[in-house]
Specification:
heterodimer; A: mainly alpha
Amino acid sequence: MKRAFPILAVLCVAFLGFATYEGLFVAPTERTMGDVQRIFYYHVPSAWTAFLLFFLNFIASIQYLVRGNDFADRFAKWVAVLVGAAGCIAVFAIKPMPAGIEPSSVATTALAITGLYFLIRKYFPEERTDVLALVTAEVGVVFCTVVLVTGPLWARPVWGIWWTWDIRLTSTLVLWLIYVSYLVLRRFSTSGQTPSVAAALAVFGALDVPLVYFSIWVFRTQHPQPVIGGGGSIDPRMLHVLLINWLAFLFFAALLCWARYELEIFQRQVEETHVLESLLEPENKQS
Amino acid sequence: MSTSLKITSATLAKDIRLEWRSKDAINSMLFFALLVVVIFSFSFDPTAEESRRIAGGLVWVAFLFAAVVALNQTWARELRNHVLDAYRVSPAPANPLFLAKALGNFLFVAVLEALMTPLFIMFYRLRALGPAWQLIPVAALGTRALVVNGTFFAAMSLRTRNREIMLPLLLFPISIPALLAMVNATQNILTGDESARFWIVLLGTYDVVFTIACLLLFETVLDAE
Protein backbone atom coordinates (compact mmCIF):
# COMPACT_ATOMS: atom_id res chain seq x y z
CA MET A 1 0.00 0.00 0.00
CA LYS A 2 2.68 2.48 1.06
CA ARG A 3 4.64 2.39 -2.20
CA ALA A 4 1.93 1.57 -4.69
CA PHE A 5 -0.62 4.11 -3.50
CA PRO A 6 1.24 7.37 -4.31
CA ILE A 7 2.17 6.05 -7.75
CA LEU A 8 -1.40 5.02 -8.46
CA ALA A 9 -2.70 8.32 -7.07
CA VAL A 10 -0.49 10.30 -9.47
CA LEU A 11 -1.59 8.08 -12.35
CA CYS A 12 -5.21 8.55 -11.33
CA VAL A 13 -4.94 12.33 -11.23
CA ALA A 14 -3.26 12.31 -14.64
CA PHE A 15 -5.96 10.05 -16.04
CA LEU A 16 -8.75 12.18 -14.56
CA GLY A 17 -7.09 15.29 -16.04
CA PHE A 18 -6.86 13.64 -19.44
CA ALA A 19 -10.50 12.54 -19.25
CA THR A 20 -11.58 16.07 -18.28
CA TYR A 21 -9.59 17.51 -21.20
CA GLU A 22 -11.25 15.04 -23.54
CA GLY A 23 -14.67 15.93 -22.18
CA LEU A 24 -14.18 19.69 -22.34
CA PHE A 25 -12.21 20.14 -25.56
CA VAL A 26 -12.13 17.00 -27.70
CA ALA A 27 -15.73 15.82 -27.54
CA PRO A 28 -17.93 17.50 -30.18
CA THR A 29 -20.41 20.14 -29.03
CA GLU A 30 -24.00 18.95 -28.88
CA ARG A 31 -26.18 20.62 -31.52
CA THR A 32 -29.19 21.71 -29.46
CA MET A 33 -27.89 21.88 -25.89
CA GLY A 34 -24.48 23.36 -26.59
CA ASP A 35 -21.70 23.21 -24.03
CA VAL A 36 -24.07 22.46 -21.14
CA GLN A 37 -24.25 18.93 -22.44
CA ARG A 38 -20.62 18.38 -21.44
CA ILE A 39 -21.72 17.78 -17.85
CA PHE A 40 -22.90 14.45 -19.27
CA TYR A 41 -19.27 13.24 -19.04
CA TYR A 42 -19.37 13.65 -15.26
CA HIS A 43 -22.98 12.87 -14.56
CA VAL A 44 -23.27 9.52 -16.32
CA PRO A 45 -19.93 7.99 -15.24
CA SER A 46 -20.66 9.00 -11.62
CA ALA A 47 -24.07 7.35 -11.83
CA TRP A 48 -22.65 4.12 -13.25
CA THR A 49 -19.90 4.07 -10.65
CA ALA A 50 -22.35 4.72 -7.80
CA PHE A 51 -24.68 1.94 -8.96
CA LEU A 52 -21.78 -0.48 -9.30
CA LEU A 53 -20.59 0.36 -5.79
CA PHE A 54 -24.06 -0.09 -4.31
CA PHE A 55 -24.26 -3.40 -6.08
CA LEU A 56 -20.91 -4.47 -4.59
CA ASN A 57 -22.27 -3.43 -1.21
CA PHE A 58 -25.25 -5.74 -1.74
CA ILE A 59 -23.05 -8.71 -2.68
CA ALA A 60 -20.68 -8.11 0.22
CA SER A 61 -23.61 -7.85 2.66
CA ILE A 62 -25.17 -11.07 1.37
CA GLN A 63 -21.86 -12.81 1.78
CA TYR A 64 -21.44 -11.50 5.28
CA LEU A 65 -24.84 -12.93 6.19
CA VAL A 66 -24.48 -16.35 4.53
CA ARG A 67 -20.86 -17.19 5.30
CA GLY A 68 -21.51 -18.55 8.77
CA ASN A 69 -24.25 -20.88 7.60
CA ASP A 70 -23.27 -23.76 5.31
CA PHE A 71 -26.68 -24.25 3.75
CA ALA A 72 -27.26 -20.55 3.11
CA ASP A 73 -23.78 -20.23 1.63
CA ARG A 74 -24.39 -23.03 -0.85
CA PHE A 75 -27.84 -21.70 -1.66
CA ALA A 76 -26.49 -18.21 -2.38
CA LYS A 77 -23.76 -19.68 -4.58
CA TRP A 78 -26.33 -21.52 -6.67
CA VAL A 79 -28.48 -18.41 -6.95
CA ALA A 80 -25.44 -16.49 -8.24
CA VAL A 81 -24.76 -19.21 -10.83
CA LEU A 82 -28.43 -19.34 -11.83
CA VAL A 83 -28.55 -15.56 -12.35
CA GLY A 84 -25.64 -15.82 -14.79
CA ALA A 85 -27.20 -18.77 -16.60
CA ALA A 86 -30.63 -17.12 -16.75
CA GLY A 87 -29.09 -14.00 -18.28
CA CYS A 88 -27.43 -16.04 -21.04
CA ILE A 89 -30.54 -18.12 -21.72
CA ALA A 90 -32.76 -15.03 -21.81
CA VAL A 91 -30.74 -13.72 -24.77
CA PHE A 92 -31.83 -16.72 -26.84
CA ALA A 93 -35.20 -17.43 -25.26
CA ILE A 94 -36.80 -13.97 -25.37
CA LYS A 95 -36.51 -13.26 -29.05
CA PRO A 96 -38.02 -9.84 -29.56
CA MET A 97 -36.34 -8.10 -26.63
CA PRO A 98 -38.28 -5.19 -25.12
CA ALA A 99 -37.39 -1.94 -26.85
CA GLY A 100 -34.16 -0.37 -25.67
CA ILE A 101 -32.59 -3.49 -24.20
CA GLU A 102 -29.56 -4.93 -25.95
CA PRO A 103 -29.24 -8.74 -25.71
CA SER A 104 -25.48 -8.46 -25.21
CA SER A 105 -25.89 -6.09 -22.25
CA VAL A 106 -28.32 -8.50 -20.56
CA ALA A 107 -25.85 -11.38 -20.84
CA THR A 108 -22.90 -9.21 -19.76
CA THR A 109 -24.74 -7.89 -16.72
CA ALA A 110 -25.86 -11.34 -15.61
CA LEU A 111 -22.38 -12.80 -16.04
CA ALA A 112 -20.86 -9.82 -14.22
CA ILE A 113 -23.13 -10.51 -11.25
CA THR A 114 -21.95 -14.12 -11.05
CA GLY A 115 -18.34 -13.13 -11.62
CA LEU A 116 -18.36 -10.44 -8.96
CA TYR A 117 -20.04 -12.76 -6.49
CA PHE A 118 -17.33 -15.40 -6.82
CA LEU A 119 -14.47 -12.89 -6.96
CA ILE A 120 -15.56 -11.33 -3.69
CA ARG A 121 -16.10 -14.77 -2.21
CA LYS A 122 -12.61 -15.82 -3.13
CA TYR A 123 -10.63 -12.73 -2.17
CA PHE A 124 -12.47 -11.44 0.91
CA PRO A 125 -12.56 -13.51 4.09
CA GLU A 126 -15.69 -13.29 6.15
CA GLU A 127 -14.97 -10.29 8.39
CA ARG A 128 -13.47 -8.36 5.47
CA THR A 129 -16.74 -8.51 3.53
CA ASP A 130 -18.18 -6.19 6.17
CA VAL A 131 -15.36 -3.69 5.62
CA LEU A 132 -15.97 -3.95 1.89
CA ALA A 133 -19.69 -3.30 2.38
CA LEU A 134 -18.92 -0.23 4.49
CA VAL A 135 -16.44 1.36 2.08
CA THR A 136 -18.51 0.70 -1.04
CA ALA A 137 -21.55 2.29 0.62
CA GLU A 138 -19.53 5.33 1.68
CA VAL A 139 -17.87 5.93 -1.67
CA GLY A 140 -21.13 5.07 -3.46
CA VAL A 141 -22.98 7.77 -1.53
CA VAL A 142 -20.29 10.27 -2.55
CA PHE A 143 -20.69 9.45 -6.24
CA CYS A 144 -24.47 9.38 -5.94
CA THR A 145 -24.32 12.86 -4.43
CA VAL A 146 -22.29 14.00 -7.44
CA VAL A 147 -25.04 12.61 -9.68
CA LEU A 148 -27.77 14.40 -7.73
CA VAL A 149 -25.86 17.70 -7.84
CA THR A 150 -24.83 17.62 -11.51
CA GLY A 151 -28.31 16.54 -12.62
CA PRO A 152 -30.12 19.74 -11.59
CA LEU A 153 -27.19 21.85 -12.87
CA TRP A 154 -27.86 20.41 -16.30
CA ALA A 155 -31.64 20.33 -16.01
CA ARG A 156 -31.98 24.03 -15.22
CA PRO A 157 -30.79 25.36 -18.59
CA VAL A 158 -32.07 22.42 -20.65
CA TRP A 159 -35.48 21.66 -19.12
CA GLY A 160 -35.93 25.04 -17.45
CA ILE A 161 -36.44 23.43 -14.04
CA TRP A 162 -34.04 22.25 -11.37
CA TRP A 163 -35.88 19.12 -10.42
CA THR A 164 -38.76 16.96 -11.53
CA TRP A 165 -40.24 13.89 -9.92
CA ASP A 166 -39.59 11.55 -12.80
CA ILE A 167 -38.49 7.96 -12.57
CA ARG A 168 -34.71 8.16 -12.81
CA LEU A 169 -34.35 11.22 -10.65
CA THR A 170 -36.69 9.96 -8.00
CA SER A 171 -35.30 6.45 -7.86
CA THR A 172 -31.75 7.80 -7.64
CA LEU A 173 -32.81 10.08 -4.81
CA VAL A 174 -34.50 7.20 -2.97
CA LEU A 175 -31.41 5.06 -3.52
CA TRP A 176 -29.32 7.84 -2.01
CA LEU A 177 -31.70 8.09 0.96
CA ILE A 178 -31.54 4.34 1.56
CA TYR A 179 -27.75 4.28 1.62
CA VAL A 180 -27.53 7.39 3.75
CA SER A 181 -29.79 5.65 6.26
CA TYR A 182 -27.45 2.66 6.02
CA LEU A 183 -24.48 4.88 6.92
CA VAL A 184 -26.44 6.53 9.72
CA LEU A 185 -27.26 3.11 11.14
CA ARG A 186 -23.60 2.17 11.04
CA ARG A 187 -22.66 5.42 12.70
CA PHE A 188 -25.10 5.09 15.58
CA SER A 189 -24.87 1.37 16.10
CA THR A 190 -22.82 0.17 19.03
CA SER A 191 -19.70 -1.42 17.67
CA GLY A 192 -19.93 -5.18 18.13
CA GLN A 193 -23.37 -5.62 16.60
CA THR A 194 -23.03 -3.29 13.65
CA PRO A 195 -21.97 -5.66 10.84
CA SER A 196 -24.87 -8.09 10.82
CA VAL A 197 -27.52 -5.44 11.49
CA ALA A 198 -26.09 -3.26 8.72
CA ALA A 199 -25.90 -6.23 6.34
CA ALA A 200 -29.58 -6.95 6.98
CA LEU A 201 -30.45 -3.34 6.19
CA ALA A 202 -28.37 -3.47 2.99
CA VAL A 203 -30.35 -6.50 1.82
CA PHE A 204 -33.59 -4.63 2.55
CA GLY A 205 -32.35 -1.64 0.60
CA ALA A 206 -31.39 -3.75 -2.39
CA LEU A 207 -34.78 -5.49 -2.36
CA ASP A 208 -36.41 -2.09 -2.25
CA VAL A 209 -34.69 -0.78 -5.40
CA PRO A 210 -36.76 -2.70 -8.00
CA LEU A 211 -39.95 -1.87 -6.11
CA VAL A 212 -39.03 1.81 -6.05
CA TYR A 213 -38.33 1.67 -9.77
CA PHE A 214 -41.63 0.00 -10.67
CA SER A 215 -43.68 2.17 -8.38
CA ILE A 216 -42.37 5.34 -9.97
CA TRP A 217 -42.46 3.80 -13.42
CA VAL A 218 -46.14 4.58 -13.87
CA PHE A 219 -45.52 8.30 -13.78
CA ARG A 220 -44.49 9.62 -17.15
CA THR A 221 -40.75 10.00 -17.47
CA GLN A 222 -39.08 13.21 -18.51
CA HIS A 223 -35.46 12.11 -18.30
CA PRO A 224 -33.80 11.58 -21.69
CA GLN A 225 -33.92 7.92 -22.59
CA PRO A 226 -30.59 6.20 -22.00
CA VAL A 227 -28.45 6.87 -25.02
CA ILE A 228 -26.24 3.83 -24.50
CA GLY A 229 -28.05 0.63 -25.37
CA GLY A 230 -31.32 2.55 -25.43
CA GLY A 231 -33.31 3.74 -28.40
CA GLY A 232 -31.30 6.96 -28.77
CA SER A 233 -28.13 7.35 -30.76
CA ILE A 234 -24.88 8.95 -29.71
CA ASP A 235 -21.98 10.31 -31.71
CA PRO A 236 -19.19 7.67 -31.55
CA ARG A 237 -16.70 10.38 -30.50
CA MET A 238 -18.95 11.28 -27.57
CA LEU A 239 -19.25 7.65 -26.59
CA HIS A 240 -15.46 7.37 -26.72
CA VAL A 241 -15.03 10.33 -24.37
CA LEU A 242 -17.77 9.03 -22.10
CA LEU A 243 -16.09 5.67 -21.74
CA ILE A 244 -12.70 7.28 -21.04
CA ASN A 245 -14.37 9.33 -18.33
CA TRP A 246 -16.04 6.29 -16.89
CA LEU A 247 -12.72 4.44 -16.74
CA ALA A 248 -11.14 7.41 -14.99
CA PHE A 249 -14.00 7.58 -12.49
CA LEU A 250 -13.82 3.85 -11.85
CA PHE A 251 -10.08 4.14 -11.26
CA PHE A 252 -10.67 7.01 -8.86
CA ALA A 253 -13.44 5.15 -7.03
CA ALA A 254 -11.36 1.99 -6.75
CA LEU A 255 -8.47 4.00 -5.32
CA LEU A 256 -10.74 5.73 -2.81
CA CYS A 257 -12.26 2.40 -1.77
CA TRP A 258 -8.84 0.87 -1.37
CA ALA A 259 -7.54 3.69 0.81
CA ARG A 260 -10.68 3.67 2.92
CA TYR A 261 -10.55 -0.13 3.16
CA GLU A 262 -7.00 -0.14 4.50
CA LEU A 263 -7.81 2.70 6.86
CA GLU A 264 -10.86 0.90 8.24
CA ILE A 265 -8.91 -2.31 8.82
CA PHE A 266 -6.17 -0.32 10.53
CA GLN A 267 -8.71 1.43 12.70
CA ARG A 268 -10.30 -1.87 13.70
CA GLN A 269 -6.89 -3.24 14.65
CA VAL A 270 -6.24 -0.20 16.80
CA GLU A 271 -9.59 -0.63 18.55
CA GLU A 272 -8.90 -4.29 19.11
CA THR A 273 -5.53 -3.49 20.64
CA HIS A 274 -7.14 -0.95 22.96
CA VAL A 275 -9.63 -3.55 24.14
CA LEU A 276 -6.88 -6.11 24.70
CA GLU A 277 -4.79 -3.57 26.59
CA SER A 278 -7.63 -2.64 28.91
CA LEU A 279 -8.15 -6.33 29.58
CA LEU A 280 -4.48 -6.82 30.44
CA GLU A 281 -4.02 -3.73 32.58
CA PRO A 282 -5.45 -4.93 35.90
CA GLU A 283 -3.16 -7.96 35.80
CA ASN A 284 -0.12 -5.76 35.25
CA LYS A 285 -1.01 -3.69 38.25
CA GLN A 286 -1.41 -6.73 40.45
CA SER A 287 1.95 -8.20 39.50
CA MET B 1 -50.48 -27.02 19.03
CA SER B 2 -46.95 -26.67 17.75
CA THR B 3 -44.33 -24.85 19.78
CA SER B 4 -44.06 -21.90 17.41
CA LEU B 5 -47.78 -21.33 17.49
CA LYS B 6 -47.76 -21.49 21.27
CA ILE B 7 -44.98 -18.92 21.52
CA THR B 8 -46.75 -16.64 19.08
CA SER B 9 -50.09 -16.83 20.84
CA ALA B 10 -48.57 -16.46 24.30
CA THR B 11 -46.56 -13.38 23.33
CA LEU B 12 -49.47 -11.89 21.46
CA ALA B 13 -51.85 -12.48 24.37
CA LYS B 14 -49.35 -10.91 26.76
CA ASP B 15 -48.92 -7.84 24.55
CA ILE B 16 -52.65 -7.41 24.11
CA ARG B 17 -53.26 -7.76 27.82
CA LEU B 18 -50.53 -5.22 28.62
CA GLU B 19 -51.95 -2.83 26.08
CA TRP B 20 -55.50 -3.39 27.33
CA ARG B 21 -54.47 -2.48 30.84
CA SER B 22 -52.16 0.44 30.12
CA LYS B 23 -53.50 1.67 26.74
CA ASP B 24 -50.12 3.37 26.28
CA ALA B 25 -49.67 2.78 22.56
CA ILE B 26 -53.27 3.34 21.50
CA ASN B 27 -53.71 6.54 23.46
CA SER B 28 -50.51 8.15 22.27
CA MET B 29 -51.15 7.07 18.67
CA LEU B 30 -54.71 8.36 18.70
CA PHE B 31 -53.78 11.72 20.12
CA PHE B 32 -50.87 12.04 17.73
CA ALA B 33 -52.98 11.22 14.69
CA LEU B 34 -55.66 13.64 15.88
CA LEU B 35 -53.05 16.39 16.14
CA VAL B 36 -51.84 15.65 12.62
CA VAL B 37 -55.40 15.85 11.29
CA VAL B 38 -56.05 19.18 12.97
CA ILE B 39 -52.73 20.72 11.99
CA PHE B 40 -53.06 19.63 8.38
CA SER B 41 -56.51 21.16 8.17
CA PHE B 42 -54.94 24.57 8.86
CA SER B 43 -52.42 24.14 6.07
CA PHE B 44 -54.99 23.98 3.29
CA ASP B 45 -58.64 24.75 2.77
CA PRO B 46 -60.52 21.47 3.18
CA THR B 47 -63.18 21.78 0.51
CA ALA B 48 -64.59 18.47 -0.76
CA GLU B 49 -62.76 18.67 -4.12
CA GLU B 50 -59.42 19.63 -2.63
CA SER B 51 -59.51 17.06 0.17
CA ARG B 52 -60.36 14.24 -2.20
CA ARG B 53 -57.10 14.91 -4.02
CA ILE B 54 -54.99 15.27 -0.91
CA ALA B 55 -56.69 12.91 1.55
CA GLY B 56 -54.79 9.80 0.41
CA GLY B 57 -51.46 11.33 1.33
CA LEU B 58 -52.81 12.97 4.45
CA VAL B 59 -54.38 9.83 5.90
CA TRP B 60 -51.35 7.66 5.31
CA VAL B 61 -48.82 10.16 6.53
CA ALA B 62 -50.85 10.53 9.73
CA PHE B 63 -51.02 6.74 10.16
CA LEU B 64 -47.33 6.31 9.37
CA PHE B 65 -46.26 8.85 11.97
CA ALA B 66 -48.67 7.45 14.52
CA ALA B 67 -47.52 3.88 13.85
CA VAL B 68 -43.93 4.90 14.60
CA VAL B 69 -45.07 5.94 18.06
CA ALA B 70 -46.41 2.44 18.74
CA LEU B 71 -43.53 0.65 17.04
CA ASN B 72 -41.00 2.41 19.21
CA GLN B 73 -42.63 0.96 22.31
CA THR B 74 -42.91 -2.69 21.20
CA TRP B 75 -39.38 -3.76 21.89
CA ALA B 76 -38.48 -1.20 24.51
CA ARG B 77 -40.96 -3.00 26.77
CA GLU B 78 -38.91 -6.21 26.47
CA LEU B 79 -35.67 -4.54 27.43
CA ARG B 80 -36.82 -3.89 30.98
CA ASN B 81 -35.81 -6.75 33.31
CA HIS B 82 -33.79 -8.24 30.40
CA VAL B 83 -36.77 -10.10 28.95
CA LEU B 84 -35.26 -10.04 25.49
CA ASP B 85 -31.95 -11.46 26.72
CA ALA B 86 -33.84 -14.24 28.46
CA TYR B 87 -35.66 -14.99 25.23
CA ARG B 88 -32.38 -15.06 23.34
CA VAL B 89 -30.76 -17.64 25.60
CA SER B 90 -33.87 -19.80 25.64
CA PRO B 91 -34.09 -22.51 22.94
CA ALA B 92 -37.24 -20.89 21.48
CA PRO B 93 -37.00 -20.00 17.79
CA ALA B 94 -36.90 -16.29 16.91
CA ASN B 95 -39.54 -16.02 14.22
CA PRO B 96 -42.63 -16.73 16.37
CA LEU B 97 -41.64 -13.79 18.55
CA PHE B 98 -41.39 -11.57 15.50
CA LEU B 99 -44.76 -12.76 14.19
CA ALA B 100 -46.41 -12.11 17.53
CA LYS B 101 -44.98 -8.61 17.73
CA ALA B 102 -45.94 -7.83 14.14
CA LEU B 103 -49.47 -9.18 14.65
CA GLY B 104 -49.87 -7.16 17.83
CA ASN B 105 -48.73 -3.98 16.11
CA PHE B 106 -51.00 -4.72 13.17
CA LEU B 107 -53.90 -4.99 15.58
CA PHE B 108 -53.08 -1.73 17.37
CA VAL B 109 -52.63 0.22 14.15
CA ALA B 110 -55.82 -1.32 12.72
CA VAL B 111 -57.75 -0.17 15.79
CA LEU B 112 -56.27 3.28 15.36
CA GLU B 113 -57.33 3.35 11.71
CA ALA B 114 -60.84 2.20 12.56
CA LEU B 115 -61.19 4.98 15.11
CA MET B 116 -59.58 7.69 12.98
CA THR B 117 -61.39 7.02 9.71
CA PRO B 118 -64.74 8.49 10.84
CA LEU B 119 -62.88 11.59 12.02
CA PHE B 120 -61.15 11.99 8.68
CA ILE B 121 -64.45 11.59 6.84
CA MET B 122 -66.06 14.16 9.08
CA PHE B 123 -63.31 16.76 9.09
CA TYR B 124 -62.47 16.58 5.41
CA ARG B 125 -65.95 15.79 4.03
CA LEU B 126 -64.68 12.73 2.22
CA ARG B 127 -66.86 10.65 -0.05
CA ALA B 128 -65.41 8.01 -2.35
CA LEU B 129 -66.35 8.39 -6.01
CA GLY B 130 -64.71 5.06 -6.91
CA PRO B 131 -65.38 1.58 -5.49
CA ALA B 132 -65.13 2.21 -1.75
CA TRP B 133 -64.80 -1.47 -0.75
CA GLN B 134 -61.33 -1.46 -2.29
CA LEU B 135 -60.22 0.77 0.56
CA ILE B 136 -60.34 -2.28 2.83
CA PRO B 137 -57.65 -4.30 1.02
CA VAL B 138 -55.61 -1.12 0.61
CA ALA B 139 -55.82 -0.46 4.35
CA ALA B 140 -55.02 -4.07 5.26
CA LEU B 141 -52.05 -4.39 2.88
CA GLY B 142 -50.81 -0.90 3.66
CA THR B 143 -50.91 -1.44 7.39
CA ARG B 144 -49.14 -4.74 6.98
CA ALA B 145 -46.42 -3.08 4.89
CA LEU B 146 -45.82 -0.45 7.58
CA VAL B 147 -46.05 -2.76 10.55
CA VAL B 148 -44.00 -5.76 9.39
CA ASN B 149 -41.06 -3.60 8.32
CA GLY B 150 -41.57 -1.31 11.26
CA THR B 151 -41.37 -4.15 13.76
CA PHE B 152 -38.22 -5.42 12.08
CA PHE B 153 -36.52 -2.03 12.03
CA ALA B 154 -37.57 -1.33 15.60
CA ALA B 155 -35.75 -4.51 16.61
CA MET B 156 -32.79 -3.35 14.55
CA SER B 157 -32.68 0.08 16.14
CA LEU B 158 -32.62 -1.47 19.61
CA ARG B 159 -28.93 -1.95 19.00
CA THR B 160 -28.23 1.71 18.41
CA ARG B 161 -27.80 4.82 20.43
CA ASN B 162 -30.86 7.14 20.40
CA ARG B 163 -33.08 4.41 18.98
CA GLU B 164 -36.25 6.49 19.05
CA ILE B 165 -34.88 8.65 16.25
CA MET B 166 -33.31 5.72 14.46
CA LEU B 167 -36.57 3.93 13.64
CA PRO B 168 -38.06 6.54 11.28
CA LEU B 169 -34.65 7.08 9.68
CA LEU B 170 -34.51 3.40 8.75
CA LEU B 171 -38.19 2.81 8.08
CA PHE B 172 -39.12 5.78 5.90
CA PRO B 173 -36.67 5.34 3.00
CA ILE B 174 -37.48 1.65 2.65
CA SER B 175 -41.24 2.35 2.89
CA ILE B 176 -41.28 4.86 0.03
CA PRO B 177 -42.66 2.44 -2.62
CA ALA B 178 -45.30 1.13 -0.21
CA LEU B 179 -46.29 4.63 0.80
CA LEU B 180 -46.52 5.71 -2.83
CA ALA B 181 -48.75 2.71 -3.56
CA MET B 182 -51.02 3.33 -0.56
CA VAL B 183 -51.39 7.02 -1.28
CA ASN B 184 -52.09 6.56 -4.97
CA ALA B 185 -54.49 3.68 -4.43
CA THR B 186 -56.47 5.68 -1.87
CA GLN B 187 -56.47 8.72 -4.10
CA ASN B 188 -57.63 6.75 -7.14
CA ILE B 189 -60.47 5.22 -5.14
CA LEU B 190 -61.55 8.55 -3.68
CA THR B 191 -61.49 10.45 -6.96
CA GLY B 192 -62.70 7.48 -9.00
CA ASP B 193 -60.62 8.61 -11.98
CA GLU B 194 -58.46 5.55 -12.43
CA SER B 195 -58.36 1.96 -11.28
CA ALA B 196 -56.35 1.28 -8.14
CA ARG B 197 -55.55 -2.27 -9.18
CA PHE B 198 -51.90 -1.66 -10.13
CA TRP B 199 -51.16 -0.08 -6.77
CA ILE B 200 -52.88 -2.84 -4.82
CA VAL B 201 -50.85 -5.49 -6.66
CA LEU B 202 -47.67 -3.51 -6.03
CA LEU B 203 -48.54 -3.25 -2.35
CA GLY B 204 -49.15 -7.01 -2.20
CA THR B 205 -45.79 -7.69 -3.84
CA TYR B 206 -44.06 -5.35 -1.40
CA ASP B 207 -45.68 -7.18 1.52
CA VAL B 208 -44.70 -10.63 0.29
CA VAL B 209 -41.09 -9.67 -0.50
CA PHE B 210 -40.45 -7.92 2.77
CA THR B 211 -42.28 -10.39 4.98
CA ILE B 212 -40.05 -13.14 3.62
CA ALA B 213 -36.96 -10.96 4.08
CA CYS B 214 -37.97 -10.14 7.66
CA LEU B 215 -38.53 -13.78 8.58
CA LEU B 216 -35.22 -14.82 7.01
CA LEU B 217 -33.20 -12.09 8.69
CA PHE B 218 -34.92 -11.62 12.03
CA GLU B 219 -32.84 -14.20 13.85
CA THR B 220 -29.64 -12.46 12.73
CA VAL B 221 -30.89 -9.14 14.01
CA LEU B 222 -32.19 -10.52 17.29
CA ASP B 223 -28.96 -12.36 18.03
CA ALA B 224 -26.66 -9.60 16.80
CA GLU B 225 -24.20 -9.29 19.61
